[in-house]
## 1
Amino acid sequence: MKKLILLLSILTAAQITFAQADTSFNFLRNTSIPDFEIAKAPDSVTVTKKDVVKRGHPFLLVFFSPDCEHCQKETKEFLAYKNELKDIQVLMITPMPYAHVKQFYTDYNIDSLPNFTMGQDWAYHLGDKLRPHFFPTMLLYDKIGNYITGFTGNVPIPTILAAFKK
């Protein structure tokens, strides 16, 4: 009996640690990437959806915070899987002060990821529209910009890639 309880406890803990599709984003079904305007790192130039999103490529929108350990870990995974992610457009945004964004951009060598754009959502327009509850929050969109699914917390890159293939 003790072994059965231990096994159930381990399975429950394992279930909790693996990221699952976040059903709290169901309100996004049949929606597309909203318009946005951000201050892009490293030069603080203002860019919009039409500057960042290229039709014909899947799109990953990542809400992050530079001081979030989970976001730092996810960014390291992005760097480790940069070849596998090369055909996916990625926008990492945060409402945090621009100086923090720029420092994160530099510290994590984001310029080595040509398909990544990072910036500050200074007016929190995307946050208001998409309502992320945790950092990191990742929203996946298909090649024509339609919402696929969302994840919160650390998500293994193979899980993200598999979600794009569904």
## 2
Amino acid sequence: MIIDEKIKELEEKQAEILKEIEELKKGQETFKRYRAEKDKYYRSINFDGNIIYIKEINAASDNYRYITGNYFETTEEAEIHIQNLITYQQLKDIALRLNNGQDINQGDYYKDKYYIYYDKEKEEFLLDFDCTAQSLNVVYCLDENFLNVALSEIGEEKLKQLLKWGI
């Protein structure tokens, strides 16, 4: 009888310890981008700009779409990505035009270059300049009217969405 009680007590302790271990493991989970399980579907942007549904089979093409960021859980995410790609290219085209065809993103680190950013605290677009640093995916322009032209041609909402996206 005493042995049965001791076994029951230890089993209860074991259950508590296992539960605590599971809780600790949950706290250690690392957060990763969405990746569909094998034989489940994800969305991708096809070569013609259409969103396609693809079954994940762990093929080289699935891996390529994933590592290049062309891999989405929802259609809405893919649509936002398409719009941001278009807006980013529009911003680059505006800068190229205002720079009289000179692509300053690929060189001269010592010129004053303007770039647009969105200040979340002030909730406004700002134009700043830098002559030494150059960041990946930031569009630089020599013209101090860059922000005004971008807002006029692209629009506030699309530009805000792009900047929140991460350039």
## 3
Amino acid sequence: MNTLFLHMPKCAGSSMREILQRKFAVTYDYDSFFRFPKEERMKLILDALRSPEELPNNTFIFGHFFPVKYLGQIKNNKENFRLITFLRDPIQRLASHYSFWQNSNFSDHYLWRKMKSENWSFKEFCLSQEMKNFYSQYLIYIPLSTFDFVGIHENLNKDWEQLCQIFEIEYEKLPHINKSPNLLIKELSDEDKNQIENYHSEDISLYLKFKKLKNNFKVM
């Protein structure tokens, strides 16, 4: 069985990677379609939809890949792969993403260059067309029922322990890696926060749906 672990950006994936790479022969895929402007990105997505990449059996993929890259139109037998990810509150994720980009250099990413050249504020970053409903962009053409496990960042330790049981590995406490402050959210006015939440309503609805589930494994 192949394992596809979608490291959703700024959702504690780096911490999990540090442990998983010692337990499994992990193949990294951080060649995210998100690095490309929308027109180029959609071409890549449609190509993957028609002709997904094939993997040798028992491959463990970890990274920022769009799941459609390997699953295509989900014609694969569900017994042949398991799809896993962790999510966090979408606005908190945006704050973490913005803070990380503000203090990093990703000159090969068109959006980072645009953000830096135009000196975006956190509000402008949140309300950019490119960031709108970030989760939904990554999960394009992938039904929610495809996921075998969706952990919640706010329940990180408990959900990580559950995932270790699923992977049949010994539980280890997660290290703190790339931890970013969320003070940016507190600095928003109520009006700005409401505007941002409305703009990302699709992602917020998706996140709340998973958060309410009592058992994240076999979510649907």
